[in-house]
């Protein structure tokens, strides 16, 4: 016993020291929202009030000081996110995560984003207000890097913190531009299908724009344009290993005074982005004597992408236009350094890059470039075969004024000033939604649109050797789709097909009409909208399309071969109103059946790999409604069965049986247990949360969630063989700005304001988000000061 006591006298102090040391270390890693700090470069003191959700309200005497403080505040909550985002374009992910990210680094380096950023920065006017304020923001970030605590992720990965530069701002913008692009998900796949199976199979897919679907209407011409339907297309490039989210879709609508109870504009917006932790947006309210904005900031970019003040508000959705084209090139038969053009043989440009790889040596790789862009063979794994394929991307081919555009949009004081900035946003293609206190509502599609020869369809890989399938020129911004103060008193976007551009439908990767149809249905039915009813609408989980598909499919089933329980469930499906609540059981049977219909229709021709690629495209979403209504078609027949040609009825019957058996295997025969909450869940994943022992600490969730893909509350998921629908994208925020009471406008984030797992604001909005709740976006200084949770004061040296 005495010996034990002696041992304990030694061990207890050591254990206490370890506990105290760990506690002090962990506390040192937390963001500091309170107190006083010296911030070099300030002209005067800046006061930052943090509200109860950790959102900074920054008060300064001038913009440079305000943005310098924003840079510091942004970095102390999101430095790890900023670090990952700037690394994508520079091929720097392998240095963090090792060789598993090597192919991703090669791909993004070959896109030329970082080289393009360097060229752009070299041409900037260093004395311009945009550059001056951007540098102030960077100074704030770099001061935190120098003096602030190191985020825990840097310790876990062994990374050293390094200063940020203007090039990092443009690299972040470049990733955002590529993340929106959908061409990389479909073009090679469609080309393979055409080459392998022929035009009959291609013609049975929902490639063409549907003249019967719901379009976003232009409003700027007295007469409708004649329409020459173009074809959409894309390529399948899985980006599953990227540790940061991708942009997917979005909803937005802006109601004119004639549609609202209080006679003032209401703007609603919920951009759809891949869910991740931290979430994509950082909120900040900034106020100076000459500038005020409540904005949503992308990591490492100083100017808000979504914002409002007392005069105007703007939001965005994805335009989904086609700004990437692929070209087959031809290498000289006896000189591999040359490729064919209509003017003769030209030299391939050879580009060499070096990638740092964690726990390994540097990797140097070389790729070829043609006049169209990088040759993706041996870089992108989905590009197979010997024939070179080059990628032509608008983003890197014209002058980059995107940051100037964001600066200008954020500083515009009225609609006339605002619209002048939009042509500067050439990529990604955006639907910019606008409303103001003067009663104006507007929508503009911003993108650098171009014309192709009439005979050319960009849905396939083009011929790069003849000069006959090249771009003919750019359209003037005035030709872009838009609507300003239309007589129907609202504008909206749900990533659906816009009206004609220069007399024709512009090719793109538009989403089906499901959300658009529901939005139009709801908006047309009511003229007394207010903040409360708009917030209810943004949470709507009803599909108007899926019940109609169910009705069509049920007609094809031979009920004489079904059990009593199957008949009961079919009757329930027949009476389903399309709602996706947690306790709903119809949704599970519908989606299981839909998956097996797709699998039994397409997998025999495509094979497992290409079928899974097909499942990831917008083309698939567009095809579901069309495919269900096709009574005959090449895809219905199973090529593996001999002496039989399957029909739609055969496929539907087999798929229903497959779905039924799979549900029973998962949940048993009691259909009351087949509830949506058991299969439809959301987990916000942190890159380091992939390590099983760290998952609970870094990840947020999982939560059962309402909604589904392509309803207004668009909680989307990929179809796969598991039959469980793990949500991977959805609203990155929900915002309602009501100009009748702008200081009480509302929003929510999916998890929390901070990306630091030791912050109390890391996940304090997560349950509010899944429960469909909101919080105020405060702008009243008296209210902000009186309710502030903490105050951080930045002083001059």
From TrEMBL:
Binding-site positions, Ca(2+): 322, 325
Note on how the cofactor is bound: Binds 1 Ca(2+) ion per dimer.
GO terms assigned for molecular function: hydrolase activity, acting on carbon-nitrogen (but not peptide) bonds, in linear amides; metal ion binding
Catalytic residues (UniProt): 250 (nucleophile)
Example of a GO biological process term: antibiotic biosynthetic process
Keyword Hydrolase: yes
Residues annotated as transmembrane: 7-26
InterPro entries for this protein: Ntn_hydrolases_N, Pen/GL7ACA/AHL_acylase, Penicillin_amidase_A-knob, Penicillin_amidase_dom1, Penicillin_amidase_N_B-knob, S45
Cofactors named for this entry: Ca(2+)
Entry keywords, A to Z: Calcium, Hydrolase, Membrane, Metal-binding, Transmembrane, Transmembrane helix, Zymogen
UniProt similarity note: Belongs to the peptidase S45 family.
Name used for this protein in its record: Penicillin acylase family protein
Annotated organism of origin: Flagellimonas aquimarina
